[in-house]
Amino acid sequence: MELILSLGIGVLVGSGVWLLFRPRTYQVIIGLALLSYAVNLFIFSMGRLTINAPPIVQAGVEIDSTTFADPVPQALVLTAIVIGFATTALFLVVLLASRGLTGTDHVDGRETER
Amino acid sequence: MGSVLAAMLPANARNAEAWLSGGVSIAAFVIVVCLYPWVADGEVVRYVIEWLPELGLNFTLRVDGFAWMFSILITGIGFLVVLYARYYMSPKDPVPRFFSFLLAFMGAMQGMVISGNIILLAIFWELTSIFSFLLIGYWHHNAAARDGARMALIITGIGGLCLLVGLIIIGYIVGSYELDYVLEAGDKIRQHDLYVPALLLILMGALTKSAQFPFHFWLPNAMAAPTPVSAYLHSATMVKAGVFLLARLWPVMSGTDEWFFIVGLAGMSTLLLGAYFAIFQQDLKGLLAYSTISHLGLITTLLSFGSPLAAVAAIFHMMNHATFKASLFMAAGIIDHEAGTRDMRKLSGLFSFIPITATLAMVASAAMAGVPLLNGFLSKEMFFAQTLEQHRASLLDGVAPYVATIASAFAVTYSVRFIHTVFFGSKPEDLPREPHEPPHWMRLPIEFLVLVCLIVGIIPGLTIGPYLHTAVVSVLGERTPEYNLAIWHGINTPLVMSVVALACGVLFYLVLRNYLARGADGPPGVRSLKGKRIFEQLLVTISWRWARWMESHFGTQRLQPQLRLVIFIAFVAGLWPFYSADLHLSPPTLTEIDPVFAAIWVIGIISALGAAYQAKYHRLAALILMGGAGLVTCITFVWFSAPDLALTQLLVEIVTTVLILLGLRWLPKRIERIDNYNTLTVRIRRYRDFLLAVACGGGMAMIAYIMMTSPLPDTIASYFLEQAYPKGGGTNVVNVILVDFRGFDTFGEITVLGIVALTIFALLRRFRPAPDSIEIPEQQRIQNAYDDASANREIGETVRDYLWVPSVIMQWMFPFIILLAAYLFLRGHDLPGGGFAAGITMAIGFLLLYIAGGTRWMEDRLHILPMLWIGFGLILAVFTGMGSWLFGFPFLTSYFHYMEIPLVGKVPIATALFFDLGVFALVVGATALILIALAHQSIRSHRTRTVEITKMEEDT
Fold it and tell me: Which CATH class is domain A2-50+68-102?
């Protein structure tokens, strides 16, 4: 399980990084999205992988904390997802505005002469 | 006394300002005077406020005799300067600014003098630098003032920085930053290995501040300041800060060879050069500035000797110099004010116009020259006596008496020159103004100071004696020597030296007189060697040439290289633990792999790779593939017991996809030309990027695998799991963490979300789509063409009817979505769900309505105000947090309780619920605002197009 998830994270990071280096803004936005999946999964996996043990406790019952998934990385990732959404939206609009102002979707706002 | 700063009230009336400043300074003066009884007994008045006690930083104020003497100078002369400035400043100048800076400076200086913590001292030291910058640059329309101010700031600022480092070293050696402990630890400091660096750094601070050679050049350039400022800064305060510090630290730092050579060399060269330069100045204030430098050199030289008697002389001369130099500056100011010029080549014979001022100036400059019966004479005699004594057997010590005599002769020369050129000789011609006596109140400060000079000069023992003794005792402690403040010590070597100096000085003047009357500005021989020029060239080199060079060699405005660099550094940083830590890679076992999970991730991996491959021009495909990767992520969350995450991820995924879909419309078409570039450099670049991407991905996979397979250390998870219900009142631990334990984080986060939404809204208000994306999309054009072609259809009918059935279903779904949102919201505290998820669900409801009905239809019917939602959410969250204050708990402490609501059942009512409601409202508002703003663009562009078409029709 761990092997598959880490391979998945690796591929997501690789694809994201590759796209970050590309010159088109749209590629960068997709790259950032892929990268954020990878990072979220990575942070999440820091709590180790547990199956069928969501961190939802029973009221008034003595708790053995080892039988639950770690809630802290989950809370962190939940925040990260929402912030990731906000930045993606902001970046998208900046992308559109820059495209409208400069007439190109190159990340530098102008085509490079090669 | 630090409250002097509080008087920086802006007032417009000139008189009111002057009264205020005068009142403050006189009040401070009175307070200082009242402290004398304590100080006189050798006690130290202390006042301590704990500031950062764990770092050893306290706001300690400490007044001993020496600080007391300086306080008297600062507040007393400060008051006189305020009085003088009231008449000096023209009504056209913005006087409130002047007085507030002056008061602030006074406060900073006062603070420095009485601070009992060396770090506090450094802070006040920097404050004096900053306020002197503001004061020197007061006439900021004048280029000279700006340059002078900047130079003063840079030099003294650098010095201040060095000083701070030096003082921190001292604090490290002593183990405390309190001045009391530092003063007791003299031997420890002198024997420490770090003594020399500390000494160098502190001297750097003190010598720059006191304008000692080779840092002297800022002071003459600072003469562009208004004269009251010069009188204050360059007689009693700013430049005295340096020698004050030297004297303050004298008991702990002095007495070593390093001290003697560095300080002595700087002091003596300054003494001699300053006096020499002063002779050849044509500007009155320039002359005074160089003489100030020279006198400070004298004090520094005295302090360098390291003998107690020399220290007494130094302290005494600090006081004397402050009195006569302040009065001379004020006199120069009056001359400038009345005659309209300070150029000594133009001024002459002013005695008949301003006899009283002239007399006062003469007495003061006689004190400067060291004529008997004046205070300058006394300290100068002590200086001569000290130079004669052997302190260290060295050449420097040997030449000291000669240097002293020559410099003293020069001092006589420039004093005589000052008096003779300005007040005697033929009647002045072509003066800009007809000079006359200034108002009496303007002259009063000079009269007072000159009176002090005289009294101290004639009966020193009775007047200044006890106060000087107090100051000296506080610095020297048990080492206080026997000294005698008398005018007549009998005929001895110092007296002979004085006489020689006086005679030679007058002689020099007679010789040089004609040359000076004609001569150019500046001393002969070294005129071309100007500190200012060197300084400016240095500044240009550092701040311009080097910066440009750095920018052109290491800078880029292109994003891609920057990103490459960032990622590369991140990669190297990620690589580091592989080397530093002992990580072992356990061989992967294939047995426990669930084939379903593996298959899901095969899809995920293919999606990610496909998105990366397609993102260039098949944007829609890339978006769908990205969504695929997102869904796999979502499934992973479900698989590994994170229902909250999965829920939120899924909802966010939907909204993100719709957002990007809305944005796709405005992206440009493919540029075929660029695809054909396939040169070698491009290929190399692509390979490099590819390698880096693969390396990053591989590295991350490795780290993730190692982390996941290594055993979990003891974490704080158990605390949250155990306390979630007892303390947070919820069973969904993730949600409890978010809205309760880490509520403040969440609060910051929703604020960010709100700001992002508003930013997007603002950006899109000014959005101008690129011309090539304004056309109607191809699909709609085909549909319209079809309408046009068939006889029984109107144009736009197909577009309108497009997706008719789904849209009806979507509209019907809206209430259910609201219900779902409410359900998610209410169960959030105990089961997966919560404010975020509910908010996004609600926003998706609106989104569906948009898709179903079209933007126009929606905007006509829907009157939601997203901004109100955002504001409401934020305020609710804040108020919920603040509510806990009412019960005496910290911000965002939650309270919970279960409540029976009819029909709904048992619902947990925690205050965290209201907080979550705020989160919900804000998320709805923000998401809806973003979506609406984006969707609205499609209408706007049509409108723009219509406007343009009408315009074109009108034109033709």
Answer: mainly alpha
